[in-house]
Amino acid sequence: MSDRRYPGAVADEFPVPPVEFTDREGRTVELRPYEGSEEGYESLVAMYDDFDPADRAQGIPPGGEERIREWLDAILGDDCLNVIAWCGDEVAGHATLVPDGDAYELAIFVHQTYQRAGIGTHLIRGLLGHGQARGIRKVWLTVERWNRAAVSLYKKIGFETSNAESFELEMGLRLNDEAEGNGESDESDDREA
Predict the structure, then answer these.
(1) Model pLDDT, residue 165
(2) Where are the beta strands (DSSP E) in the chain?
(3) Backbone angles phi, psi at 157, to 5 degrees
C-alpha cells in the first residue's frame, strides 16, 4: 500500500467507450476499448514506431519496434485497461490504466499528427469512463511540472496534485467509492489531497 493521497470526493461520471466525436480539425474520431485484435495491436505498433521522440516522457513509449512490442505486450494484458482513439483505420492515440498496488497508473499518448485537436481530453475521459464501468476506484499519474498544458488538462478533468516534491507532479483521482469499486480496503488513503 502506497502513501499516495486521493481526493475524498468521487469524480463525476465519464463517458464509456465506444464514443465518437469530431476533433477540432473536423476529423471523426472513435474511442474503442482495446479487445486484443491483431489489427489493433499492429496499428498501435505502427503509431508508436512513428512516434516523435520529442514527445516521449519518462522513457515511454520506447523506441524501436522490438522494444515497442515488448512494452505493448506488458500493458495490453488482461489486468490493464486500454482505449484507442481511431481516426478511420489509423490510431491517433492510446491511453492505458496499469495496475499498481491498490490503484491504477494512467498513461496517455497522442500521435503528433493528431495533437492539439482535443483528442487527448476525449481519450482520457473515455479511459476513465472505461475504468469507472469496471469498478476501478483510484487512478494516479505523473506529469513533468513544466508541462503546463497537461497539468491544466488533468486538473480540468478532476485530478488533484498529491505529491509535488520532485521535478514531476503526482496527481490522483478517485473514480468510484469503495462500495462501488472492486472491494479492496481503502482505509489508509481517506486523507484529502
Answers:
(1) 74
(2) 19-22, 28-33, 81-87, 90-100, 103-110, 138-144, 160-163, 168-174
(3) -75, -25
Q: Which residue stretches of the chain are H helix?
A: 38-49, 65-75, 119-133, 148-157
Q: In this predicted model, what pLDDT tens digit does every residue of 20-65 receive, in sequence order?
A: 999 999 999 999 999 999 999 999 999 999 999 888 887 899 999 9
Q: Tally the C-alpha atoms within 13 A of residue 134's C-alpha that lie toward its C-beta.
A: 20
Beta strands at 90-100 and 81-87: parallel, antiparallel or unpaired? antiparallel
pLDDT of residue 186: 38
Query: Residue 164 CB: number of other CB atoms within 10 A?
Result: 11
Cα–Cα distance for residue pair 151/162, rounded to 1 Å: 13
